[in-house]
């Protein structure tokens, strides 16, 4: 019997750009809207049930409503489709409905585990579209691969998806194509960004690693993330901060002001924004500028994280709390621009992928401690952000602030092993 996705030891994900026809775009939009509607229906029923249970007086109509909602939430897919018959239209993917309900339950599960993101919120309609489906395999299929499921690879440039049919795509890594007969597909996400580009994200699993583990080279490094230069490592090497948002902020601000003017004009003329061609044209321009910055930053972070993982057996970084740091309004824009949290996430999953070790440590006193003798600068001698160079008063060792911090981070990481 074939293993499920959860039972497979290796997992990987790819996101490819697809080029749907006009009819396929219509189906994607309909399924996206239906997925959002089902999610919101689940949220609405749960919210109503919660508040009804706060009523202490045993009113018959309230008790009947509680019983009705409880019964509907036991089998939400059938209950929602029975009330809203349009969801039974053949345009809709049945697995889309199941995934929308699953995503809502997952949101609650994450809330109970983390208690930071808050309870599930209603999903608003926007300029992006997304829905999820699943790859199913027939009982006759003994060895699930990328070529014999409901979501399958027809050739190197075409995918087959439920309801959408034949779909042309671009850019699947050669290592995936070479192992297609050893890989099975799981959850598949179809999406459209604010610019109008369509994508398909494939979750994949295999009995074999997707990349070969790198040989042991016995190199270890600690990295200090800062705003002056993006990254300084314990070997003294620095990576400059590219500041992608800063370079385009003036042009983006001008485009956004123009967008606001067009929105005001449309409302003054009593035209809906969705029907205002000038507004939509400018909105697309603003979205393209924002997408350019996001892609530049993502490409930069991928190159940095891959180089660190491939060239070191152990990478140690400080555990940053970006949400807390963003409270400093003077630095909020610069902190958001560098993408530290994204880099740490990339280092984490790439370390697992290549068989390396990645650790995060508490950054407490990593900047104020002398990496040579362990003296901590306190009181009047405590270093400020302006102090980029300093000399230890105990051992007279001269330090570059960021290099010293990187050495302390590495030492903390080695101490935890």
TrEMBL record:
Q: Where is the Probable transposase IS891/IS1136/IS1341 domain?
A: 214-326
Q: Can you give the residue ranges of the Transposase putative helix-turn-helix domain?
A: 13-42
Q: Which InterPro entries does the protein's record reference? A: Cas12f1-like_TNB, RNA-guided_DNA_endo/Transpos, Transposase, Transposase_put_HTH
Q: Where is the Cas12f1-like TNB domain positioned along the sequence?
A: 340-409
Its domain of life? Bacteria
Point to the regions of Basic residues compositional bias.
Answer: 259-271
- What UniProt keywords are attached to this protein's entry? DNA recombination, DNA-binding, Endonuclease, Hydrolase, Metal-binding, Nuclease, Transposition, Zinc
Q: Which positions carry the signal peptide feature in this UniProt record?
A: none
Question: Which residues lie within the region annotated Disordered?
Answer: 259-280
Q: Name one GO molecular function term.
A: endonuclease activity
PANTHER family recorded: RNA-GUIDED DNA ENDONUCLEASE INSQ-RELATED, TRANSPOSASE
> Could you say which protein family the record assigns here?
In the N-terminal section; belongs to the transposase 2 family.
Q: Which NCBIfam families match?
A: guided_TnpB (NF040570), IS200/IS605 family accessory protein TnpB-like domain (TIGR01766)
Q: What is this protein called?
A: RNA-guided endonuclease InsQ/TnpB family protein
């Amino acid at each position: 019997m074939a293993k499920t996705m959860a039972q497979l030891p290796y997992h990987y994900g790819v996101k490819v750009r697809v080029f749907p026809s006009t009819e396929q775009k219509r189906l994607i939009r309909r399924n996206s809207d239906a997925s959002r509607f089902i999610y919101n229906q689940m949220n609405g029923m749960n919210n109503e049930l919660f508040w009804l249970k706060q009523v202490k007086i045993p009113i018959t109509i309230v008790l009947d409503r509680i019983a009705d909602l409880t019964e509907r939430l036991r089998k939400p897919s059938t209950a929602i489709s029975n009330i809203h018959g349009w969801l039974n239209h053949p345009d809709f993917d049945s697995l889309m409905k199941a995934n929308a309900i699953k995503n809502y339950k997952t949101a609650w599960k994450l809330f109970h585990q983390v208690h930071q993101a808050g309870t599930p919120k209603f999903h608003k309609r926007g300029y992006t579209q997304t829905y999820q489906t699943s790859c199913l395999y027939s009982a006759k299929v003994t060895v699930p691969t990328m070529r014999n499921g409901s979501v399958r690879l027809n050739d190197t440039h075409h995918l087959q998806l439920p309801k959408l049919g034949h779909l042309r795509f671009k850019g699947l890594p050669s290592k995936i194509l070479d192992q297609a007969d050893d890989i099975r597909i799981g959850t598949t996400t179809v999406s459209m960004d604010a610019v109008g580009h369509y994508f398909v994200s494939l979750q994949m699993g295999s009995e074999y690693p997707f990349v070969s583990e790198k040989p042991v080279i016995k190199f270890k490094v600690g990295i200090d993330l800062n705003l002056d230069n993006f990254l300084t490592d314990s070997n003294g090497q620095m990576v400059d901060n590219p500041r992608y948002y800063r370079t385009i902020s003036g042009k983006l601000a001008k485009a956004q002001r123009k967008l606001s003017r067009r929105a005001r004009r449309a409302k003054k003329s009593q035209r809906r924004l969705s029907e205002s061609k000038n507004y939509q044209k400018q909105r697309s321009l603003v979205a393209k500028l924002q997408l350019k910055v996001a892609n530049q930053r993502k490409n930069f972070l991928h190159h940095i994280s891959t180089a660190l993982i491939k060239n070191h057996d152990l990478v140690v970084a400080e555990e940053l709390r970006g949400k807390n740091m963003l409270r400093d309004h003077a630095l909020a824009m610069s902190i958001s621009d560098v993408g530290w949290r994204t880099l740490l996430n990339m280092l984490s999953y790439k370390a697992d992928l290549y068989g390396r070790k990645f650790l995060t440590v508490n950054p407490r006193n990593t900047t104020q401690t002398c990496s040579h003798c362990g003296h901590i600068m306190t009181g009047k001698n405590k270093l400020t952000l302006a102090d980029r160079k300093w000399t230890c008063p105990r051992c007279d060792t001269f330090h570059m602030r960021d290099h010293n911090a990187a050495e302390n981070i590495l030492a903390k990481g080695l101490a935890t092993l």
